[in-house]
Amino acid sequence: MGVVGTSSFVVRRCWFAFTVFSVATFADITDLVDTTTVLGRDATLFCSNSEHSSGFAQWSDITVGGSPVPFATQADGVRRVPPETYGKYANFDLDSGSVTQLDLKISSAELEDEGTYSCTLNPDTKTATLTVEIEGAEPTITVDGYSSGNPIILRASEPSVLRCTARGFRPAVTLEWYKNSVQITTGVSPEAPTPNGDAFDTSGTLTFTPIRQDNEAILECRTTGQVVAPAKTAPLTLNVQYVPVVSVGYANEVITCSSDANPLATNHKIILNGTQVVKEFTTSQGSHLFTPVDGCTVISCNATNTVGTGTATFTDEVCLGYVEPTTNAPSKSPSTTKSPPAATNSGAVVGAVVGVFIAAIIICGLTIFCWMRKRRERQKPTRGQSTTGRDGKGYFKPDRQHHVELQRSGSNMVASSSKDDQPNGKCFGMILIENFSVPAVLDMLLIQICLVNMLDFVI
User: Fold this and answer.
1) Does this model's pTM top 0.70?
2) C-alpha closest to that of 272 among 291, 245, 251
3) How wide is the angle at C-alpha 190 spanned by C-alphas 185 and 195, nearest 5°?
4) How far apart are CA 27 and CA 41, in angstroms?
5) Most buried of the four, 259, 317, 335, 445, by CB within 10 Å?
6) Where does residue 14 rank: exposed (0-12), middle (13-18), buried (19+ CB within 10 A)?
């Protein structure tokens, strides 16, 4: 084997051994991550390799120019000389409790400590960035360009422009508005941050139109956007002033008047028919005894504060004999006129059926009456002669004229009554009693009951 061959063989063997040694011996660096701290606080950049036992280990600064500048080694610690080169790291220290650990500790971090640093635990190298935040002052809020105390005074239904300013933050923050801990997104106008030395100032406005229910609400301007520095908040209580809201009532001949106002109403008036002032008072509630004499009266009440005057009118005119509604009566709603139900023929049909059945009852009753009367006449010898038969038994022999009448009546099933047989003004019930037996009357009643039941079933 020649020299060249031998050299090539040795190189290959060395490279193989180095590769196997590197893979088998060293693992990646762990725990090194970007870190944020606040100006004046401590910070630590963690760097460890569980399988590092010996070899090169150091920290380098790659903030300037991108080229690593070593400033600390595991063997020598942090280099602090010459000052012109390493003076920046006067507050840096290494925490190397074991050969596998090389943490970098920064005490009372300064803005110049910000930067990107690399840790090398042979043969692996990783980088991390240190950020130093500046905690700014509490935000301030002005209203319509004027400084405002706490609480701030606003007028209901009148828009106001509130400006929030947060000064001295690094990095620049953004501003958010809240009312009673609920974020406001309408009417918010952010502005670009402006430099303030090593920090930034941020401002933004909120166009806000309060309502009377916002009185005593909590309005806040909060900073957001920093990692470690706590958010700053400017809380304010709203003093929303509004025209009095008046309530007027009438019960038991007493007029009552009250108001809800901010500031409180200083004058109240109970007025009749729009012009007649019957009582004035300064408290928030008052009453007046009133009994209507004649006609009707319109009752109203006025309340006045520094914002304006509110008026309320009782819903009903109070007239002589006025009856107050019950306490649980439903509230009035807009009057509506209902159309009458559409005409139908059902009533006419029912009436016709009733009439037919009543007529049927009367006809049946008269028919039964006439039939029973005729039957009785056949059994009573009113005309002709009584004679004796061959067997000695008596029998009735009608005369020729009466015999003819009986034949006619038999064919027609209705007998002609003589003048003496007429009811002579007696009622129908008396005729039944005089002419019919009890079973006959019961039969007629039974028939009528059946007809009535049929009528009820049809209806």
Assistant:
1) no
2) 291
3) 150
4) 32
5) 259
6) exposed
